[in-house]
Design a protein that fits this description.
Chain lengths: ~600, ~600
């Protein structure tokens, strides 16, 4: 059945789930089809609420609860003539009769509702492993506004002084920050060796160190086995191996899983991650049933695999597209890059496209480069560095992904790179991008241009890179490790076995370097060592530049270098700019710090 | 002569001008060619200084003069082995002998310097029309750090209380803001009917009103005819028609013109704007002489015409490319979009690609749409609206240009749109862009996605637009002007002759609308009227939606609507977020304001 706009055959479209994708779908459907009957079922009390704002409501950064309620059923109905039924749970799909079974939680009654087209947008639910004590009243989960109300009430009434957050994904980090900002001692426990699995390990290390600087405890590679009462009546969180963390409350944010039970029971096809499989028209294995948002799995445009990407942006896009297709239009949702961002205290962490782990796992040929550009022109107040990791094809330079950690301007650069990746641009294009420059906003060579120059030099063969994690395999009698930073920098910390010739002395002292060896050159960030490689190569040496410099070396070797150079300085810089009221104060502070 | 990297034939490269493009060229040249002799002549005292920061140094936003001096000749030489000669003016090019005539201002001596390749990067100089009194000591120009020193000294020593700024381009606006922030009464005089000719008129109106809100006087369409002494000894600025502005100082920022005298005298080809013509390899009409940066004219990638684009980003890119070509590499500089940005008090104004004036002048078919998205999710504190104007091809939807006015997030959106324009994307692509969403940074449907949806609806024919400036020609007996805002909004101001049916009542009251007429529908921003058009079209009406709504109507009709709706509110919102320390204060202020 095709329903063109203005069609004289009103049809019934039933949408399951009234948040993000569901609400987008309903509104678009109405604009395309004024005469359709549109019914939107929502199990909870609220439609179109700001689920990405819940943790900020909890921490008080968003003060008013009503701010999270973007639409009420009444206003949505007045505007879009959509029959919104809240507290109404769809408990079964009868595909043969094209109807759904609805449980009205207000009355306890069940009824059937016919559909011509059904759109599933139930979202994803927090993972809730069957651990002892996980249902205890001091163990919290966060999905709905009511969950936030419960945690808020507990924090206000029970005066907890310490919390354990289980899980280092987006929600876990936001919760940890929120509770820390409320004054609690917070310990974050993460099963993997790093937080934020979207990031590669060395970038995650920036987050680890920043969290520690902010006074949080971080237990990585540790698994929680249960929750119980400590002898003093407080909450005991038991880790694998028996260690107990005694605290006043725990929040579990172990991950989310697609709410696919309804689809599974209706016999719709699910993928290996337990998410609903849809075609490029967002149809499930039953062409009259669409699925959108967090309940589905998404084609990873870079790695070429199916992944579960629970992101609001994707859900919203899909909601609109599903409506378009139901209205008889041609659509194709080809997949996603999975662009994401999160703020953790002062740090902003963002990524787009594939990370290195994924590329390695998918056998996609890739090279990487690291840069440390400033958020805007260094001569204008407030400029702070960031770390960019760019992944690209070593053959044609196509951009495969990017990750950025910084405090300012991160969102802008990841959006530019997401756009470039979407457009299929290569690293050769990045230097050509004309990005807006005034000293408050960028540099004449913007951070993205610089990343492009660096990667372009690699693809063009102007410089050969090596990476800090390859160093153990590279060091032997045929290599010579050269640090071209100043003597002062070298003395404050360097890689074991390196010789030091500062870049500005290199043209006078290059004869000190043994000939016939492969030179492994590094500096703090990779800029000076790049110039050194160029100089030495033209003197006849074989050279390789350590991408990202000593900063990335330290991030890759946290045991050897407990502090990433510069990270504490970023934090200070930020604090200075933000909290010191007078320029004099700032100057004084800066002086004592340096 | 080709000089491949590592070549054994050292050559002499002479660069004229040590700022932006020149310094970039020298550094890149050295990296590619360790053995070349590189000589960089700079007429002034400083190389590689932050010319885009001078007006902020003047206003005190950049406090330390040394911050502007990004490189010293000594450090540049130590790092790049470049023979930097400051206070050395190249006064002639002898193409026949491949040499330049240099005047050493330190000694007064002249000498010749041979070159194999010559790179001209002299920049552009302020336009200095031959007006009576323009050389007076209270009339200032701003190009160099020394100019800023002079103005700074005058402000500190002579306690001027009022200033006239002549010219409403980037520098004029920055100067006006800087002097205003120093406490002066500032009047800005601009010959054209608008400031910032990069912008289309209606977008410039946001800047006009914001400047007035900030207490500045603005005289548009007025020409300055001379400067003289007022009877009380102050400075009199005479306007065409005889009006005199009495003030304590004047700053002329009438524009810049390419410093092309040297090239012209050497017989190199100049374009109609008096700028040096270069080919895609950045060579002038003499293939051994390159020209880069503000002295050249640039191919406008969208309009297909040659324009003078004095932008630091372009100069830097060209500097590097010229070095690449001299080193024997293949390069092609195809042209530029001219992305630019400026902050004026709280407003940020940015553009990329062509504006409507240029497209009209170049006979490029174009359509436009206006949107008013929020800087980030409305439920997170600090969200402020912006105005986006998108220009695109009505045929294939290709993006031709964009302009944005707002207070936050403007730089990010213009950079995304600049990247999309560079990549040749269409409005159909914009909704698909996956831009990073967390509530501090954006929305699940980002501002750029929304602009894409709106333009896509136009190209797809889902809605037909009209523009506020077409209204006089459209209104007749066959049209019906419909305002779908609330009764309260309507009462506070509406377009003459409009009927009012609020959107949420439209499904009950559409029968009130006369049939057979073309409906011209508007609301505040264009969203509600779009839905109204969809509803009414499906009821059988012919409809057109006023793009950008009443906000843009007011910006296009400043005489009829002296205040753009919302602009004062932006300003308040911003002041509230920035200056009020407690949430209670903010709430109080907000309440009294609404």
């Amino acid at each position: 059945m095709s329903m063109n706009s203005g069609s004289q055959h009103p049809a019934t479209i039933v949408i399951v789930g009234g948040v993000a994708g569901g609400a987008s779908c309903a509104a678009r459907m109405r604009r395309l089809h004024e005469d359709a009957q549109i019914i939107m079922f929502e199990r909870g009390e609220h439609i179109s609420f700001a689920s990405c704002g819940i943790s900020y409501y909890l921490s008080g950064e968003i003060q008013e609860r009503r701010k999270l309620l973007i639409q009420t059923p009444e206003r949505f109905n007045a505007r879009f003539n959509v029959d919104v039924r809240i507290k109404s749970e769809v408990i079964a799909i009868h595909r043969a009769t094209k109807s759904v079974e609805v449980l009205d939680h207000k009355t306890g009654q069940q009824y059937r509702q016919h559909y011509d087209k059904l759109v599933l947008s139930p979202g994803a639910a927090p993972v809730r492993p069957p651990l002892p004590g996980i249902d205890g009243e001091r163990v919290f989960f966060l999905r709905s506004i009511e969950d936030a109300d419960r945690i808020k009430a507990y924090v206000q009434d029970a005066y907890p002084r310490s919390a354990v957050v289980v899980g280092g994904g987006f929600i876990g980090l936001e919760m940890a920050e929120g509770l820390r900002n409320l004054g609690l001692d917070v310990t974050l426990v993460e099963m993997a060796g790093q937080v934020m699995l979207q990031l590669d390990e060395e970038l995650a290390e920036f987050v680890h160190q920043h969290m520690k600087l902010k006074g949080m405890k971080l237990l990585l590679g540790r698994r929680v086995e249960g929750f119980g009462d400590a002898p003093d009546g407080r909450l005991a969180v038991t880790l694998q191996g028996g260690q107990e963390l005694i605290c006043d409350m725990a929040v579990c944010a172990i991950g989310v899983k697609p709410e696919a039970a309804l689809a599974r029971e209706a016999g719709l096809e699910l993928g290996p991650h337990g998410a609903v499989i849809v075609n490029r028209q967002l149809q499930t294995s039953d062409p009259d049933i669409y699925a959108i948002g967090d309940v589905t799995e998404t084609h990873d445009l870079i790695a070429g695999v199916m992944r579960h990407m629970p992101l609001a942006g994707i859900a919203n896009k899909q909601g609109r597209l599903a409506a378009d297709h139901i209205a008889g239009r041609q659509i194709a949702f080809d997949g996603a890059l999975g662009t994401s961002i999160v703020r953790i205290f002062d740090l902003v962490v963002a990524g787009t496209g594939a990370n290195e782990k994924t590329l390695r796992g998918s056998n996609v040929a890739h090279e990487k480069s690291y840069t440390h550009p400033a958020s805007h022109a260094g001569y204008f107040p407030g400029a702070v560095p960031m770390v960019m990791k760019l992944l690209f094809s070593p053959d044609d330079g196509r951009i495969l992904g990017a990750q950025i950690v910084g405090v300012d301007g991160v969102d802008k650069r990841i959006d530019v790179l997401a756009t470039a990746t979407y457009a299929g641009l290569t690293v050769h294009d990045l230097p050509k991008l004309e990005l807006a420059y005034a000293p408050q906003f960028g540099s004449a060579k913007d951070a993205v241009n610089i990343a492009g120059y660096v990667a372009d030099n690699v693809v063009e063969g102007d410089v050969e890179l090596f990476h800090a994690d390859e160093l153990p395999a590279l060091i032997d009698n045929d290599t010579f490790l050269l640090d071209v930073r100043t003597a002062g920098e070298f003395d404050r910390g360097h890689i074991n076995g390196a010789a030091n010739i500062p870049i500005d002395n290199l043209r006078d002292r290059w004869q000190e370097i043994p000939t016939g060896k492969l030179l492994l050159v590094y500096c703090l960030t990779g800029i000076r060592s790049y110039l050194a490689c160029r100089i030495l190569r033209q003197k006849g040496f074989r050279t390789r530049n350590m991408s990202g410099g000593y900063v990335i070396y330290c991030a890759m070797n946290p045991l050897e270098c407990p502090e990433i150079p510069g990270l504490r300085r970023w934090q200070r810089l930020l604090a200075l700019e933000t909290f010191c009221s007078t320029p004099e104060e700032r100057k004084t502070l800066r002086r004592t710090d340096e």
